[in-house]
Structures are given as structure tokens and as C-alpha cells.
Amino acid sequence: MPKFKIHYLNLRGRAESIRLLLNYVQQPFEDFRENFLEFTKAKDKLPLPHLPKLTVDGQFEICYTSVILAYLGEKFGLESDTAEEKALCMQLAQRINDHFEYIKPFLPVLAEQCFWPCIIEDFGAVFERQLEINNTGYLVGDKITWVDFYAASFSDLALTYGREDMLDRFPRVLHHFRGEERIF
């Protein structure tokens, strides 16, 4: 059985969806949470100084959340069936990557101007529409895929750092990560 190790900072952020997926498939993993100051001191010595990083068997290393999720999705049967569905998964994952970039310089005083509109006007609306179009309870296809974990993790971050009612206008998005097949 392969040995998995997630390297990330001591927070949920971009690694939480990876943890969720590995827990979902009941795959044990080491959750290495790096101190930010220690990481910044050592990152110049790394071949690819980016977190999150997944190490498999101490040899194979990959970075970037959506790349790691796509890899794990294929490895554990959580990927879409067709090339078109796979492309939709990648497109939705890229949208979440964009949202993470929007909130990167997040300051609490700017929440109402920057973060909330990003969630309400874009993330919520786009993902609500996708869930409505797909009409299966999943973002793509008729089974859970790796991109569902990424979206659920971002939804949880939105509710953690935003207003409690922030996603109330998007019942499908709320149900997606809190419904019968709970990701959270």
C-alpha cells in the first residue's frame, strides 16, 4: 500500500480538499503541517517550492491542489468518465484556483468589498448553475469526483471567513457539501 504525505502550512486552506478526499476513500496519510516561517526559510532549497505538496512513498512528489486532486481522483476512481467531463472538472477546479487568488491578500476590513462579492456574485452563482445544469447532486457526471471535494472545501472556507448566511441564496451549493453524501 502506498504511503501518502501531505505537506502544507498549519491551516486548512488549499490542502483541506486533499485531506477530505483521502479520508473519503479511507486512505491513511501523514498530515505534515509546516510552520510558515520555517517553510519560507527552507523553500529556496526545494526543487519546487510550492505548497500543498503530496509525497507518495517518499519518492514521487507533486504540487498544486488541482493537480494533486486529479491524480488522486484517477488513483482512487473519483474521476469523470468522458474527456468532456474531465475537461469540465479541470475548468471548475481552475475557477476555484482563481477564487483562492482573489482572497489571497484578504484583510478583514476588505471582506465586505472583496471577499463577499467574490463568493456571492461569482463562486456561488457559477457553482449553483453548474449543479442545476448537471442535476445529479454532483458538479460533473453522476458520481462524486475529485472536483466535488475542492468545491466543498472552498464552500466551507467561505462560510468560515464570511457571513454565516453567505451561501443561503445557493441551496444546491449548500446541499452539495452538507447533503446526504456529506463531504463535510
Automatic annotation (TrEMBL):
Pfam families recorded: GST_C_3
Domain called GST N-terminal: residue spans: 2-80
Molecular functions (GO terms): glutathione transferase activity
Entry-linked Gene3D superfamilies: 1.20.1050.10, Glutaredoxin
Gene Ontology BP terms: glutathione metabolic process
PANTHER family in alphabetical order: GLUTATHIONE S-TRANSFERASE (PTHR11571), GST C-TERMINAL DOMAIN-CONTAINING PROTEIN-RELATED (PTHR11571:SF256)
Name of the protein: GST N-terminal domain-containing protein
Organism: Meloidogyne javanica
